[in-house]
């Protein structure tokens, strides 16, 4: 350590210089002579500056400060500048006191100017004042005065009391003079405590003078023990890289660790800024690096960690500075790249050196570079070379920059010239077999890999060490990416390699959160299957093996396997009609039912709060919605939210219920291995459910016990619980709490196994008349359980052949299907099983749904479930037929493309015979409209719906119904008006439906609730498919339902779009064309055989309304026109708006006139007249005039009663208040 540095360290530590008189105290004389007398330190007499310092020691600095203050006041008054020249001459010839006063005056002036600049913060003013300051600072910048100035400044700082000068402000001001380093160092040497603040001041980002580097260098020589601290501040602030390198080489001597640290992160500060690194500064560093690498090459046991560190520094410097290597340096570089053994940790660093110096290394030895790349490719669990090949092949050069930056932990841009040269080599260097093998071997020890351990071809490689879980997960992710890309570019197809087993293993090894590269892998794999003979799909047997029991809890592997099947089916649908239909083969829908797609969907949405499968959730939902649209209905989604909300409430159950659940769960676990005893041990609970009318509370507890079982247990017992509950719950005596408990149970099962549950429910609700003759009733204590030939869930029937022939035939179980074990006393039920309709059969023929027990239509809770199933079947049916139509069209187009030379005449014939999209749409519309007509039949009042009113004497008065229709429309205080109206009605004018609101038709509450459910379903259906509202009203239905439909269906207003067309249409065309022109539905209520169709009402109208005077065709036409008139009038009554008024004037009133003449004053015409008058009271006179003009002599009685009824309606203020016109 130099003597001056030791002296500084001693003074800074507060030591006594007299104990070390041999040190160099020259820079510290002002400080020492201020603190001590010369007699106490005689060794200071050897310095020539001692006499000068002593002359300034005994000055009166208070007087000097006062004189400087007065001088500054005089300068403010005189701006000629004559004091400036006077002060300069005075310093040259004046006494020490005068010189000290001149220096203090000069620096005070400089500090004041700097203070004004700091306040104004104006760059233009700063530059102007800096230029003006050069002239007055000539005194401080003069080299002649520099030696004495280095003594005066410290003395002023040390001796002045309450100085106007702060040392850091002085340092900032001194940076404006020429070569201020000597003066700054003199100040710091005599004020040791100001070293760190001075360094921070010098590192101010705003330094227009660029004087910090020489000052800091001299300060580090003055206090070399502070050099490490100064260099660290340079690195932290990313300033003065040349100074940092110089301090490292001359003082710190830790080139490797320092370069490794400063290249971390964003090293561009080394080459940018006001003082960038030069090649001269790096020359010594480069020499040191290659010398160290050469030492490692010649060592018997090289330090591979040190080699990696040196290679990282070398790669970063070459890429950052674009350095040119000498031949000797290139040789050392190639020797290091060829050095073994190879390890995954060294492969990335070596590849980065290849990338940074690619052009130089290729010019020096192309063959050796190729050999190095082959060795790096064959290194186990090292995908770096494979990733580079992928990036080069796809032209993703920015990804290569990111790869190098990640490996080196620094942001760099690889030189593009060398990158292009290296890319040209990559295109032909590796074979397809080598690329495929490398990709499949990543993280897999069971795949053969060239040179993975031991000695191979004279080269030593490291043994394969098992990687950690985190590293294995990363390797699987990289492998997914690499294999997916190689599948896209047909590497495996050209090399004849099948990746089926590898993909299946990746699925089974998947963890959560799910790897983002898994979805591209599955998509690329399914796409490759469709066009490659070598790549096969996962067999259904392997899928069934993974889903040995779908009732068990799901895993990420199972969810991914379902996603793969959905992707495969999506690709197959997109490739319909391709040349090879064998490869484009979908997984059967029964297989997806077997794995319970709805349960998997909920698992993907809810597992770990949706975080685990966040990357695949949107695609999963899209695919399920495209292939199973029936699973996405509003009712089910709302039920799911309700079940999740009430989960906490269900947990807090009464003690008795908890005991029952615990007993049931314990019993289930004890007999789980003995499936033959399932029916036996559950028999007590089935007895309780079957006797729910007698013991409703016990039945509710049994349902709650079932709900609290695990998901696997609930699924395995779903069949028994459904068949134990239905159809017994159709009994009108069933308690509402039992019905609600069953519905909650049904909703829970519907979340996870909807397809199976829908089939179970319809099977249990089938009418007894549709089954073979039943044997004698079983003993009362034996609860029936489903047999092996009744309903079998999809996951149990999957291995059985599908039913053939007529869809209505029961499903016959194959002999290799294991039957459900039953109690011996229940075996007699198997002899007469009801026909089973699976969900697939219901989708193919939705009309089969209406073969259920007629009591379903009068059991609101069960009817809601029926409507939910019906909506799903309608959606599924449209999807099923549309999908098969697209498949047939694609096959036809493919056949035509393969036979382009067929005759034009034959092609025209085939085109005319072709089933078109319009035909399919018409068929689907016809099917759905027929289903809607069946629903409306259910809503018709049956005799028992009216008779039950008389058998309910205990009902509250608010629920009673009057026998006369008009009594419900008037208040009790209008007795006289009511009597007159009733007397008119008793003479036969109008019907109940004409004058009674829809909610007061004299039907019981059950039918009202059934209608509410039906009309809500139709409301949503009319919104989703507006064409249905048009078709159903052109087909027609019972006129008794018109008031209820118009008031109950909220979306009925869409009918205004086609109402004029309905009023002027001629249904004879539809009859002639083979359509169903029945405008009304009468006859037996729904619940019978639905295949009989909708009964025609044309003959009825012809006989009752027209007295049989018209033929069948004329009766149908007249009935349709009467229906349209009656419907239009009721619609106008609900919506008395300006738009409907215009329709009334233009279409309805003319139709009323026509039908009054043609039908002979039929009751529908009179009802319509009264309804129109109530809708638009101001048109009542016009309506009466139309009736008078069209009436004959025989119609006078009906005319008189109708006119009186209309006039009575007009006397009611409520009629006028209701109308907005």
UniProtKB/TrEMBL annotation:
Residues 797-830, 948-973 are annotated as: Disordered. Residues 799-819 have a biased composition (Polar residues). It comes from Entomortierella parvispora. Coiled coil: none annotated. This is Integrator complex subunit 2. InterPro entries: ARM-type_fold, INTS2. GO terms for cellular component: integrator complex. PANTHER family: INTEGRATOR COMPLEX SUBUNIT 2. GO terms for biological process: snRNA 3'-end processing. Pfam families: INTS2 (PF14750). Residues 963-973 have a biased composition (Basic and acidic residues).
């Amino acid at each position: 350590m130099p003597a001056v540095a030791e002296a500084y360290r001693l003074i800074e530590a507060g030591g006594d210089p007299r104990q070390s008189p041999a040190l160099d105290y020259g820079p510290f004389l002002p400080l020492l002579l201020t603190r001590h007398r010369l007699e106490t330190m005689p060794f200071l007499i050897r310095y020539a500056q001692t006499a000068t310092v002593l002359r300034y020691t005994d000055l009166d600095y208070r007087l000097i400060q006062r004189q400087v203050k007065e001088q500054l006041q005089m300068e403010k008054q005189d701006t000629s500048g004559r004091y400036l020249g006077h002060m300069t001459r005075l310093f040259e010839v004046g006494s020490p006191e005068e010189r000290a006063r001149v220096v203090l005056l000069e620096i005070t002036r400089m500090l004041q100017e700097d203070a004004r600049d700091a306040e104004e913060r104006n760059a233009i003013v700063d530059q102007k004042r800096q230029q003006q300051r050069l002239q007055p600072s000539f005194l401080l910048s003069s080299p002649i005065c520099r030696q004495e100035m280095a003594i005066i400044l410290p003395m002023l700082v040390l001796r002045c009391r309450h100085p106007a000068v702060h040392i850091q402000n002085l340092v900032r001001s001194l940076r404006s003079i020429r070569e201020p380093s000597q003066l700054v160092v003199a100040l710091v040497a005599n004020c040791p405590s100001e070293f760190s603040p001075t360094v921070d001041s010098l590192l101010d980002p705003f330094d227009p003078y660029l004087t910090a580097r020489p000052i800091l260098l001299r300060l580090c020589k003055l206090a070399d023990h502070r050099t490490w601290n100064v260099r660290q501040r340079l690195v932290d602030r990313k300033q003065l890289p040349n100074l940092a390198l110089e301090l490292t080489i001359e003082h710190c001597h830790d080139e490797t660790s320092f370069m490794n640290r400063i290249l971390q992160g964003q090293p561009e500060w080394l080459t940018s800024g006001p003082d960038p690194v030069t090649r001269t500064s790096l020359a010594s560093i480069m020499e040191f690096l290659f010398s160290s690498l050469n030492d490692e090459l010649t060592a018997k046991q090289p330090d591979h960690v040190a080699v990696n560190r040196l290679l990282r520094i070398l790669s970063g410097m070459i890429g950052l500075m674009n350095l040119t290597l000498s031949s000797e340096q290139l040789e050392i570089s190639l020797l290091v790249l060829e050095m073994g053994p190879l390890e995954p940790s060294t492969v990335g660093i070596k590849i980065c050196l290849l990338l940074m110096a690619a052009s130089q290394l290729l010019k020096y030895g192309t063959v050796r570079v190729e050999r190095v790349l082959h060795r790096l490719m064959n290194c186990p669990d090292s995908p770096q070379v494979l990733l580079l090949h992928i990036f080069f092949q796809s032209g993703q050069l920015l990804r290569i920059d990111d790869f190098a930056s990640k490996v080196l932990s620094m942001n760099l841009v690889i030189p593009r010239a060398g990158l292009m040269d290296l890319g040209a080599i990559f295109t032909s260097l590796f074979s397809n077999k080598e690329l495929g093998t490398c990709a499949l071997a990543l993280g897999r020890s069971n795949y053969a890999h060239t040179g993975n351990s031991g000695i191979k071809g004279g080269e030593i490689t490291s043994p394969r060490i098992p990687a950690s879980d985190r590293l294995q997960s990363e390797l699987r992710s990289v492998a997914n990416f690499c294999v997916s890309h190689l599948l896209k570019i047909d590497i495996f197809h050209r090399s004849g390699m099948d990746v089926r087993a590898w993909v299946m293993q990746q699925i089974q090894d998947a963890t959560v959160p799910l790897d983002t590269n898994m979805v591209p892998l599955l998509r690329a794999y399914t796409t490759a299957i469709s066009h490659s003979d070598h790549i096969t799909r996962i067999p259904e047997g392997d899928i069934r093996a993974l889903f040995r029991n779908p009732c068990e809890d799901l895993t990420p592997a199972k969810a991914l396997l379902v996603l793969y099947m959905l992707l495969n089916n999506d690709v197959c649908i997109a490739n319909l009609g391709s040349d090879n239909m064998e490869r484009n083969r979908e997984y059967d829908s029964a297989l997806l039912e077997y794995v319970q797609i709805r349960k998997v969907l909920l698992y993907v949405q809810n597992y770990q709060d949706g975080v685990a499968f966040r990357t695949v959730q949107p695609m999963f939902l899209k695919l399920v919605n495209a292939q199973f649209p029936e699973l996405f209905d509003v009712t089910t989604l709302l039920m799911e939210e309700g079940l999740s909300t009430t989960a906490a409430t269900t947990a807090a159950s009464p003690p008795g219920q908890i005991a029952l659940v615990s007993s049931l769960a314990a019993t289930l676990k004890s007999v789980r291995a003995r499936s033959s005893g399932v029916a036996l041990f559950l028999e007590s609970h089935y007895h309780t459910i079957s006797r729910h009318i007698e013991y409703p509370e016990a039945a509710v507890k049994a349902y709650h016990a079932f709900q609290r079982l695990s998901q696997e247990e609930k699924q395995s017992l779903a069949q028994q619980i459904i068949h134990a509950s239905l159809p017994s719950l159709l009994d009108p005596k069933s308690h509402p709490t039992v019905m609600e408990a069953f519905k909650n149970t049904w909703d829970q099962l519907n979340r996870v196994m909807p397809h199976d549950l829908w089939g179970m429910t319809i099977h249990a609700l089938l009418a007894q008349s549709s089954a073979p003759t039943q044997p004698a009733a079983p003993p009362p204590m034996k609860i029936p359980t489903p047999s092996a030939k009744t309903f079998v869930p999809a996951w149990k029937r999957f291995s059985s052949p599908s039913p053939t022939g007529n869809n209505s035939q029961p499903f016959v179980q194959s002999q290799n299907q294991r039957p459900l074990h039953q109690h011996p006393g229940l075996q007699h039920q198997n002899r007469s099983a009801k026909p089973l309709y699976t969900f697939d059969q219901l989708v193919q023929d939705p009309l089969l749904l209406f073969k259920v027990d007629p009591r379903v239509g009068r059991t609101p809770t069960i009817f809601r479930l029926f409507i939910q199933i019906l909506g799903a079947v309608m959606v599924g049916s449209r999807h099923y037929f549309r999908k098969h139509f697209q498949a047939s069209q694609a096959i036809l187009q493919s056949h035509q493309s393969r036979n382009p030379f067929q005759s034009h005449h034959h092609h025209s014939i085939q085109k005319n015979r072709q089933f078109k999209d319009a035909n399919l749409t018409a068929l689907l519309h016809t099917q759905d409209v027929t289903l809607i007509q069946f629903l409306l039949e259910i809503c018709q009042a049956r005799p028992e719906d009216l008779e039950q009113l008389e058998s309910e004497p205990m009902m509250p008065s608010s629920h009673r119904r009057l026998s006369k229709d008009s009594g419900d429309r008037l208040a009790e205080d209008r007795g006289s008006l009511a009597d007159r109206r009733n007397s008119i009605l008793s003479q036969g004018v109008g019907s109940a439906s004409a004058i009674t609101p829809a909610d007061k038709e004299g039907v019981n509450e059950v039918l009202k609730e059934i209608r509410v459910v039906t009309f809500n379903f139709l409301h949503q259906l009319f919104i989703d498919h507006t064409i249905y509202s048009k078709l159903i009203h052109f087909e027609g239905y019972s006129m008794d339902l018109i008031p209820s439909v118009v008031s109950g269906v909220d979306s009925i207003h869409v009918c205004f779009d086609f109402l004029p067309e309905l009023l002027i249409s001629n249904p004879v065309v539809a009859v002639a064309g083979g359509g169903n022109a029945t405008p009304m539905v009468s006859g037996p209520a729904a619940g019978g055989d639905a295949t009989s169709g909708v009964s025609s009402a044309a003959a009825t109208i012809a006989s009752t309304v027209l007295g049989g005077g018209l033929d069948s065709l004329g009766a149908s036409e007249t009935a349709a026109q009467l229906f349209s008139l009656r419907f239009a009038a009721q619609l106008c009554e609900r919506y008395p708006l300006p738009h409907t008024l215009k329709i009334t004037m233009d279409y309805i009133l003319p139709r009323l006139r026509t039908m009054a003449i043609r039908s002979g004053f039929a009751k529908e015409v009179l009802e319509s007249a009264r309804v129109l008058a109530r809708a638009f009271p101001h048109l009542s006179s016009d309506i009466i005039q139309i009736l008078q003009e069209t009436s004959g002599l025989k119609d006078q009685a009906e005319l008189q009663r109708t006119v009186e009824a209309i006039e009575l309606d007009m006397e009611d203020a409520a009629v006028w208040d209701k109308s907005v016109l």
